[in-house]
């Protein structure tokens, strides 16, 4: 598949003409997937986490690409993200989609209609899901989530066994897995170890009681890199799939490649005299005669305003500073006295040919996850 033969829903197939575009590299996605496989046991499954539009990369295409690599488990935030994967056949009927969010009662029918696996966190939802599944005469596949220390979603460890037992005994629910989530998986210490110990103890007790094994999963990207004992039956890589470690301190622990490259066109170039100020609030002043390029991407495209006067871009293989306040639709770049850049050239804002999303995140005071997810829908995704 190439950019000439693939278009995304509602998007154009003219990659050379877009003012701003996000190139998506299938080769780098494959590279990252292979590196993940090398870090986990041979019989361990990989869940492709494609929530938040696959961290901004286009969930439909990423899901299909991962399924072609042998992935048969997918994770999304909620049922609203899951349904399009089924409708557009990005995920086949033989693969499972787990929605991490605790469902609303009004959404249970969608789980049943589109064969989405639900997360059950308490007895109230168990009873509601059981009732609706019974009324439709369709069994609902569920994973039970145990809160071992994240403090977000999940049943308490003290009552987890009883919830698991109730789901197992329900005639209308199918217990397909059990999971937890680490609060600080990239840090060495006792907290994550305690979470894992609590989780595995509950699972062992349940499996001993039922005399059957159940799919257990706990390791996110940090867990995959830092805790081999947390891989269990399945792992849930998110940010790793897209080319970044969950913590910059781990960037030398695994070889990953960015899957997205955000670039935008140089649309205007002007020469300014010393003392000229650039952009809103006059936050940058030319110290000498300079050439200033205007680039067709701004905070409405996902290029954070917090990057103003702090980031760098790459044009024709050379690095230039971004100057002035980032505006909604454009940024300005100081070319110095360079005459190499022309209108129509591509400025790489982050990716494999420029600063990384991690570099940009550091400048903005955030994390690579947010930089990737922030790339807006008006930026066309193009297969590279």
Walk me through what this model shows.
The protein is of the alpha/beta class. It folds into two domains: about 25-250, TIM Barrel (Alpha-Beta Barrel); about 260-384, Lyase, Ornithine Decarboxylase, Chain A, domain 1. Helix content is about 30%, strand content about 20%. The chain has eleven helices and 18 strands. The strands form four sheets. The chain has a six-stranded antiparallel beta barrel with strand order 10-13-16-15-14-17. α6 (about 125-135) links the parallel β5 (about 120) and β6 (about 140-145). α7 runs parallel beside α8 (about 190-210). The longest helix is centred in the middle third of the chain and has 21 residues, at about 190-210. The radius of gyration is 24 Å and the shape is elongated. The N and C termini lie close together (about 10 Å). Mean pLDDT is about 95; it is low at about 1-15.
SSE sequence, one letter per element: EHEHHEHEHEHEHEHEHEEEEEEEEEHHE
Number of helical runs?
11
Low-confidence stretches: 1-13
The assigned CATH architecture of the largest domain is Alpha-Beta Barrel
Radius of gyration: 24 Å
General shape: elongated
Q: What's the number of domains?
A: 2
Write down the CATH class of the largest domain. Answer: Alpha Beta
Strand content: 15-25%
What about the largest sheet? 6 strands, antiparallel, barrel
Number of strands: 18
Helix and strand content put the structural class at: alpha/beta
CATH topology of the largest domain: TIM Barrel
Distance between the termini: 9 Å
CATH superfamily of the largest domain: Alanine racemase
Overall helicity: 25-40%
User: Mean pLDDT across all residues, rounded?
Assistant: 95
């Amino acid at each position: 598949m190439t950019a000439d033969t693939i278009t995304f829903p509602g998007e154009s197939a003219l990659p050379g003409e877009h003012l701003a575009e996000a190139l998506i590299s299938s080769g780098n996605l494959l590279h990252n997937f292979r590196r993940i496989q090398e870090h986990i046991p041979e019989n361990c499954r990989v869940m492709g986490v494609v929530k938040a539009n696959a961290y901004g990369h286009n969930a439909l295409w990423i899901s299909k690409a991962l399924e072609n690599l042998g992935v048969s488990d997918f994770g999304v935030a909620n049922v609203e993200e899951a349904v399009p994967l089924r409708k557009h056949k990005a995920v086949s009927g033989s693969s499972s989609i787990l929605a991490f969010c605790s469902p609303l009662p009004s959404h249970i029918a969608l789980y049943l209609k589109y064969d989405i696996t639900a997360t059950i966190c308490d007895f109230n939802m168990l009873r509601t899901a059981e009732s609706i599944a019974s009324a439709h005469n369709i069994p609902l596949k569920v994973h039970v989530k145990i809160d071992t220390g994240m403090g977000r979603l999940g049943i308490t460890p003290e009552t987890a066994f009883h919830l698991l037992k109730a789901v197992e005994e329900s005639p209308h629910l199918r217990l397909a897995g059990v999971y937890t989530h680490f609060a600080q998986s990239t840090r060495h210490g006792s907290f994550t170890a305690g979470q894992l110990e609590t989780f595995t103890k509950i699972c062992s007790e349940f499996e001993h009681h039922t005399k059957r094994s159940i799919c257990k999963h706990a390791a996110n990207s940090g867990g995959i890199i830092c805790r081999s004992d947390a891989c269990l039956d399945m792992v849930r890589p998110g940010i790793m799939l897209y080319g970044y470690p969950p913590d910059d301190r781990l960037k030398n622990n695994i070889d990953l490649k960015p899957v997205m490259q955000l670039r935008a066109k140089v649309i205007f170039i002007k020469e300014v005299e010393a003392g000229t100020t650039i952009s809103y609030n006059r936050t940058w002043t030319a110290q000498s005669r300079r050439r200033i390029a205007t680039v067709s991407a701004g905070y409405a495209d996902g290029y954070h305003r917090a990057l103003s006067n702090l980031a760098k871009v790459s044009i024709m293989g050379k690095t230039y500073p971004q100057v002035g306040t980032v505006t909604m639709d454009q940024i300005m770049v100081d070319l110095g006295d360079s005459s190499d850049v022309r209108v129509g050239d591509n400025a790489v804002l982050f990716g494999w040919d420029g600063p990384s999303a991690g570099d940009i995140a550091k400048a903005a005071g955030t994390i690579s996850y947010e930089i990737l997810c922030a790339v807006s829908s008006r930026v066309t995704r193009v297969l590279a």
